[in-house]
Amino acid sequence: MKLHRVTGLRPLGAPPKASSKAVSKSMLSNRPRGTKPEVLMRRALRKTGLTDYKNSCKEIPGRPDIAFLGPKVAIFVHGCFWHRCPRCKLSLPKIHRAFWKRKFERNVIRDSIKKKLLEKEGWKVFVFWECQIRKNPYKLARRVKDYAS
Predict the structure, then answer these.
(1) Is 9 inside a domain boundary?
(2) Domain containing 49: what range?
(3) pTM exceeds 0.85, yes or no
């Protein structure tokens, strides 16, 4: 089932034109999966002995970045910029502010709905922020291991 059918959030449409070639190149390099924070988190999970996970599992509502199917543990790895980290409090882009404000608000709403859907189905959901992972991924991995073991 498409998530927008559950959330009521329709796609935003095309983003505004990039303000420069550098911005365009930067935006094109953003990846939805396999980001550096995800790779760091998976590496930390493996080093703590947690190896039986799935990446971006389509069968699970909300498609968490990392999922342990047996103990029903889902991990979302949120980039501080795109998901609006409450710790980092990053500013909005200076150009096309109204678009970005709406885009980020919808991202936060969608993230909340995904988490609630999984919890309703009995999943333990961890949300780890890029800044937390960069600081100490092993501490976060141990939290997951303490729960999943």
Answers:
(1) no
(2) 33-148
(3) no
